[in-house]
């Protein structure tokens, strides 16, 4: 039976029996305040014994483990794909642990976490802050399930809806292109990278590929002879860095698939394969696997979007790159924006959701996902409509308003990051699929 012991002037501790029969002690309440009366200490200890009988007991000692110690144990227990594992560890190392490393898990309060999140929003972009908070939320979810503490102090989206109403936040960080803008973007890519660059941009736009999947696309992944099922692109791999080296790994969330090609794209891919002898469908300028890291975004992709001013260097030598105008209306577009764009095009065309989501390699949750199925007829209708969008986009006469003067190069450190970077979500996609 629980009881209280005097520990000094105006200080008491409660004694209670743990589930294993040993005796534990507690000197503070849930708010961290010491017990100043015998009754307060005994009542709290009695409550803990009640929890033991109800099998809801949380040992107060568990909450004294620091966030740093818990994070070290936790990260090794989570099964993640290589890229997500890298992301989780980076968020912990760079942002979470510098603030919370020495704080006991049981002392992390929701108010303190909210104040910290507001500070992060002043330093980082919203998407990055969302990723950091997702890692921390998952870590504390596991702390609750492991009975290290009773609740999760990281607010969910629903619990954030207190205070000043801000209205629904739109996904304005995702820039969407029209089929015509995708075509103009591909023309800029052709100026820099020839047929390979031209076809690469259109493949992303009309197949909805992630940029890492484009880089990892091999010749054997293209089935360009139609035997009644349509010409196909097989998504089997993606290119990623594993332990600092380029490697071929499974697509994000294991989202493999077979994508039917519109006729124009099948023909462009045939021409592209005939134009070189390399293993990769879209090789680098030197014939190797394309690198889609920071250099690609800063020095290649941004020029596709923002154009390029051909100027002589300080020695008077001509520019190695052509003079190109910027495509109007899609400033800040990243490759993943073209994946979003294809989804928008197909939604506007009213194609069945199941067929669109399968092309995106998403999973539809619930009963709808169980009983909905994509037919070959649905896929062929998608290919037909994408062909029509393409034909309409190239039939338009160029309008000066579609172009803008080349935009200035961005300073280092201000470059947009890929919107493909994974946002942690309960150790993987839940109730839907990854972007």
Automatic annotation (TrEMBL):
Keyword flag DNA-binding: yes
UniProt xrefs under InterPro entries: CB, DNA_brk_join_enz, Integrase-like_cat_sf, Integrase_catalytic, Integrase_recombinase_N, Phage_Integrase
UniProt-annotated stretches for the region Disordered: 1-36, 398-435
Annotated ranges, domain Core-binding (CB): 65-144
PROSITE patterns: CB (PS51900), TYR_RECOMBINASE (PS51898)
Taxonomic superkingdom: Bacteria
Name the record gives this protein: Tyrosine-type recombinase/integrase
Organism of derivation: Streptomyces pimonensis
């Amino acid at each position: 039976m629980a009881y209280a012991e005097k520990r000094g002037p105006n200080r008491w501790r409660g004694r209670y029996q743990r589930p294993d029969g040993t005796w534990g002690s507690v000197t503070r309440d849930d708010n961290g305040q010491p017990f100043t009366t015998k009754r307060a200490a005994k009542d709290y200890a009695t409550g803990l014994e009640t929890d033991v009988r109800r099998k809801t007991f949380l040992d107060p000692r568990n909450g004294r483990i620091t966030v740093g110690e818990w994070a070290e144990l936790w990260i090794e227990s989570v099964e993640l794909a290589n890229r997500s594992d890298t992301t989780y560890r980076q968020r912990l190392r760079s942002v979470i642990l510098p603030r919370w490393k020495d704080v006991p898990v049981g002392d992390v309060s929701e108010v303190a976490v909210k104040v910290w999140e507001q500070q992060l929003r002043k330093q980082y972009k919203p998407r990055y802050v969302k990723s950091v908070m997702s890692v921390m939320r998952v870590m504390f979810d596991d702390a609750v399930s492991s009975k290290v503490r009773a609740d999760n102090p990281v607010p969910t989206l629903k619990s954030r809806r207190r205070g000043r109403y801000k209205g629904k936040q739109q996904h304005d960080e995702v820039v969407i292109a029209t089929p015509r803008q995708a075509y103009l973007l591909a023309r800029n890519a052709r100026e820099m990278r020839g047929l390979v660059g031209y076809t690469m941009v259109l493949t992303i736009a009309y197949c909805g590929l992630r940029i890492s999947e484009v880089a990892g696309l091999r010749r054997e992944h293209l089935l360009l002879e139609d035997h009644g099922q349509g010409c196909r692109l097989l998504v089997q791999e993606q290119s990623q860095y594993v332990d600092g080296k380029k490697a071929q790994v499974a697509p994000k969330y294991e989202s493999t698939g077979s994508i039917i090609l519109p006729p124009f794209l099948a023909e462009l891919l045939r021409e592209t394969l005939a134009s070189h002898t390399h293993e990769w469908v879209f090789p680098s300028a030197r014939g190797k696997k394309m690198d889609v890291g920071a250099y690609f975004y800063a020095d290649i992709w941004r020029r596709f979007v923002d154009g390029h001013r051909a100027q002589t260097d300080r020695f008077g030598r001509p520019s190695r790159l052509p003079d190109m105008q910027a495509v109007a209306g899609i400033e800040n577009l990243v490759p993943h924006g073209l994946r979003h764009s294809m989804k928008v095009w197909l939604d506007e065309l009213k194609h069945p959701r199941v067929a669109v989501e399968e092309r995106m390699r998403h999973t539809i949750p619930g009963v709808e996902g169980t009983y909905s199925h994509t037919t070959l007829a649905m896929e062929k209708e998608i290919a037909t409509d994408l062909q029509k969008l393409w034909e309409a986009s190239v039939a338009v006469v160029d309008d000066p308003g579609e172009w803008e003067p080349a935009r200035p190069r961005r300073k280092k450190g201000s470059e947009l990051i890929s919107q493909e970077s994974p946002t942690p979500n309960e150790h993987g996609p839940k109730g839907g699929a990854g972007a």
